[in-house]
Fold each of these.
Amino acid sequence: MKHQRIFGLIGNPLTHSFSKKYFDEKFVKDSLSGCKFNLYPLLNIHQFPQLIIENQNLVGLSVTLPYKESVIPFLTDLNETAKKVGAANCIKISGKQLTGYNTDCFGFRQSIKPFLESKHERALILGTGGASKAVAFVLKEIGIDCFFVSRNKAKETPTQKNLLSYDELNENIIRAFKLIVNCTPVGMFPDTNDAPEIPYQYIASSHLMYDLVYNPVETEFLKRGKQQGASIVNGLSMLYLQAEEAWKIWNKD
């Protein structure tokens, strides 16, 4: 019998994720009979070492919220991009060697590139977690100034100048930032009526609103932006692009 290669996703919750469906369909389409993709919901990241011990056939893991940063101490190595970003969403497992990568950067860069214009010179990034770090890394490389918006500004680094709280967002700020990227899980299935608390009335047709959430396909955040005439993009193409990049990493020698 052929040795089975196991892949999977860790995070909490995982009910929103399309990853298993994507890889299950890929394995059928590409006739990869020796491969399987599992979901591994972890109540906390300290369950991660036991997961590795109990699943000896694991060769690759994707990482979703809220563990893209907290998984790093459990890894034996990080590639250069993951080090610079400070977050890993992909793990290659070779024996006892666990190497972290960041394929979110690739997925976000490729998916937003067709929509960027010269007017998108400043970005508001909603959220300060692992996904927001990948987004900021890409946008800064492109030459776009980034400000983060946090629910808990007081808990963030006090000296951080490019940090705003939601109650600081006003007409002038919204008008000045033509690109707004939601990196929070707000509005994700099953809480599809929720939306980040920003003053949507100041959104205009010159805005581009990107939501990393892809389930539902059109979040409340995107709906409200569209009502104001903004261009909108969801995170589905980013999911597929980063998944294919992860697949390449898991299968390279």
Amino acid sequence: MKGYILDSDTWIEFFRHRGGVDIHIAKTPVDQIFASEVTIAELTYGALHSKAVERHLQEPKEIENTFTVLPLGDWIRDYADIRQSIVSKGYTVGDFDIIIGATARRLGLTVVTHNIKHFSLMPGVKCVDWVNSSEQ
């Protein structure tokens, strides 16, 4: 599969019209942009704890209506392999990030994140940062 799975931090920049993420999304075919169910959960949680609950609850719905949301699926072995690699090096990375990385690795997608530090620790996971970048 060719494309990009966007981390929650990148979607937040998109919805805030910051960092040029909207430009990257506009020039990338819609069938090459993905979100994880984990991201939908994270954005929904964030919306419920914001000052503009209703407005922010529309954001995950917009993703679901426009892009492909990848279900949690056949990534468990990838998750375990990635987590073991990270832990063996003495690092800690959140489980949600590892699940997104495992999904990307399983499907051959590139993770788009502003959190390159964590995703670059994951073996077999390609990542790029679209925030304030011309990188694609």
Amino acid sequence: MPKVLPLVEKGSNYFFHVLAVAKINYDSEYAVNYKDSLLDTDRIFLQENKSLLSFGDGTPPSIYTVLAFFISSIINLSSQDEIDEYFNLVADFVNNKDFAVFCHRYGEALEKIDMLHAGYSEYLKGETVKLNKDQSELVLELGELLKGNYKVYEERVWPVEYPNLKEKSTELYNALKDKVIFQSWDELVGDNYKTNSFQVSLCVANNKGPDANDLGYDKNLHYYKRPTEDLIYFVSHEIGIRYLMPSVNKVRGELHQAGQNVLYDALESLAEFYNLRVLGSGHRGFFPNLSFIEVFEEIYEKKPDHSAAELLKAAILKTH
């Protein structure tokens, strides 16, 4: 049976640190505390491009954010050499429109994205090839910025925040040892999780910002300073998303008229619907858009043998 593995990752914390200090997506006390950890010119540059870097609540990250912040966090680039190599290859990819070397070097990370979002690697390649000169320059500038600010983070921020993350990871690991999350999802959905673990990358910087950020199929980035039971709830919900994505893909073509926002809301609601049964309790207030919950309950009460795909389709057809 797969395991939930809490992680303390310097790399993923660094990339979300930069977003937090630049106040992309949200403002926080963290941004104030570490304002001086980014060069003023870099902070201003990021703010000027805020609209291109924002994401969350169903709004997917842009190609700039994926290349600069998300793939780098999936890989967990944790040294100056690793960061330099990555962004040098990104620069080659953008300048030469040749995906082969980048794909070969970081193919494992791209495969993890494709496991969750089928075909995303090809989409990324296509969108990068289409970048014009100004758009390409933005990607290159982001790379240089992230290369240039890492040393300060490593020396001044990470030593302060690492002990808190480590303590929480131990606490979360011990709390999860006796949970049967995967077994419960298997039984409810009638499917299996596709890898040996679900990794929970604990993060300091994203308080008040987008949380439970997908880093491929088998890893999410979570704000660490929540009550442990709340964290377990979020983790189980996100594991459920992995179980349910095939059901969404199965009915997507039949329900194209519903729109992406409706499908997103329905997926989040369905994960919550099942998560209430996996954990025996729920925290619906954590999600702003769960308009399908009552519809799922109504349909399920009449026909409890509905598969996840059938339940999803029936609810959307009933409401749209």
